[in-house]
Inverse folding.
């Protein structure tokens, strides 16, 4: 195992919180989270578990960024 991988695993263990959600739960809430973000709302305060998960999970973060970018493009193209 590489040192960087080991460091990531240790950091993940140290930063684990008892009220965390997993990828499935995050994905279920992602559309609502993105809509709130587009509306300019404080998503960290409104949906802290999703926000925290996105800070820690690169795969879910990538899904979030892709959905956000797609909806921003649609909003720009709307008459």
């Amino acid at each position: 195992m590489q040192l960087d991988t080991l460091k990531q695993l240790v950091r993940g263990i140290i930063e684990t919180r008892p009220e965390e959600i997993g990828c499935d739960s995050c994905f279920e809430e992602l559309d609502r989270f993105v809509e709130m973000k587009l509306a300019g709302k404080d998503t960290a305060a409104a949906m802290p578990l999703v926000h925290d998960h996105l800070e820690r999970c690169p795969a879910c973060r990538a899904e979030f960024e892709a959905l956000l970018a797609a909806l921003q493009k649609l909003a720009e193209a709307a008459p």
